[in-house]
Amino acid sequence: MKTIRIAGVPEHFNLPWHLSIESEEFIEGGINLEWTDVPEGTGKMCQMLRNDETDIAVILTEGIVKDIVAGNPSKIVQVYVQSPLIWGIHVAAKSDYQTLEDLKNTKVAISRLGSGSQLMAYVNAHNQGWETTSLQFEIINTIDGAVEALTKGNADYFMWERFMTKPLVDNGTFRRVADCPTPWPCFVIAVSDKILEQDPEIVRKILDIINLKTKTFKQIPDIVNRLSETFHQKKEDIQDWLSMTEWSQENLDNNMLNKIQNQLFELSIIDKKGTFAEIVKS
Hints:
- This protein is an alpha/beta fold and about 280 residues long.
- It is built from 13 helices and 10 strands.
- The chain has helices at about 15-20, 25-30, 40-50, 60-70, 115-130, 145-150, 160-170, 195-200, 200-215, 225-230, 235-245, 255-265, 275-280; strands at about 1-10, 30-35, 55-60, 75-80, 85-90, 105-110, 135-140, 155-160, 175-180, 185-190.
- The strands form 2 sheets. The protein has a 5-stranded mixed sheet with strand order 2-1-3-10-4, sandwiched between helices. Strands 7-6-8-5-9 form a 5-stranded mixed sheet, with helices on both faces.
- α10 (about 225-230) packs across α11.
- The radius of gyration is 19 Å and the shape is globular.
């Protein structure tokens, strides 16, 4: 039995992995898949891949592309979620900020440097025509840290997946002023070069198992209730999220990689572009 470590955010996108682990589908394939929840998100998972603390990460596309270009010894092996991530732009419920334009030249809460929340702050600023070099950041690590920072006024706004933060909107902690969808598929599966070299067949088997699960995920009986109970979401919000979420069983293609790198380069998030072979395992 081969043990493989995998990391991902504790969000509804990753329930297919947990269902496959619960039903011992990986065990049946001779794999002991050890899942680690990483609430800190993409920046932390990039660090874990670099430090050999995980073998696989289910990770935001733009974050891992940036980190592989910067030397992370990993490759993208597949797109996991094809649809964009809808980032909600949130302020404290009692904040004076009412519109997206009000947030120009204010401080954004981010989970950590290199995180999706930081990279998407640049994307949003660019979309609005703001000067991206003057963005100010407050590192808050987790959603709980964001609640504290926005409530105390240490930061002014926070970008995070819209549906995961909706309970905080519903209970009057946050107010959402706008959305910012990613202009690319939101999640990919990245694997360390070490595992790709040592156990390529194990990686292929893991992908085969999870792809079978994601293909039929929306048809699982009672899946709306399971998601609603697990992630403390209203059923209508889960149905809305499911309707706009599409999983993938294909790899990232060169055209999409070029689009991602071109935008990251334009925003000065990366200072050079990697080749397809350096970033994606074909």
